[in-house]
Amino acid sequence: MSATAETFDPDATPVSEEDALRANVYDMLAAVFRREPEPALLSELTRLKGDDTPLGQAFAELATRARSTKLAAARREYSDLFIGLGRGELVPYGSFYLTGFLNEKPLAVLRDDMARLGIVRTEGVSEPEDHIASLCEMMAGLIRGRFLEAAPVKLQRAFFERHLAPWTGHFFADVEAAKSADLYRPAGMIGRLFMEIETAAFAMEE
User: Fold this and answer.
1) In 84-183, where does DSSP find H-type helix?
2) Over its length of 206 residues, how does the chain's per-residue pLDDT go in tens digits?
């Protein structure tokens, strides 16, 4: 959405299998929450695989719901959740979750960090950069090396703790509990569980 880098070279900074899997989850969350779903996204979601872990079960449930959800229903659900008439059931922006208002200090802090890291907005995108999809895309980019080079764990952790940890777990839990959520309910669970896993993993780096 807004996390792009003109200097991206996908072959320049290979990452470990574990980090590639982390980036894949962030990229998937970005795709799911970025905009009303397209046919290609629903098709991709049907191919998700799970396992016996809570996170794996959530992936499997999302795949199951994607198979049984018509595109029109998925688009209507996204609109009810995040767009609505004036405002959706949920507001997927960090500033709103942290201050109750859009375009507040958390967004200014994010923009400062984006400039420092070489992350630029995609032309034509009007949404503020603290949208949940943008932040997930930025985390994936830091892991994969989309912004000059793969960021060391210390930098990933700093970005996560400043811009995602304070509110994204709450947001994803709200998606799980939202009355309009059906297809997006397991997506919220994936997000919540993954934020918990990331938080615990970064804590082990101390």
Assistant:
1) 94-99, 105-117, 132-144, 153-163, 168-177
2) 344 333 344 444 678 999 999 999 999 999 999 999 999 999 999 999 999 999 999 999 999 999 999 999 999 999 999 998 778 999 999 999 999 999 999 999 999 999 999 898 888 778 899 999 999 999 999 999 888 677 789 999 999 999 999 999 999 999 999 999 999 999 999 999 999 999 999 998 76
> d(Cα 193, Cα 58) in Å, to the nearest integer?
9
Taking the C-alpha atoms of residue 201 and residue 179, their distance in angstroms, rounded to an integer, is 32
Q: Which amino acid is at 35?
A: R
Q: What is the pTM of this model?
A: 0.92
- How many angstroms separate the CA atoms of 164 and 198, rounded? 10
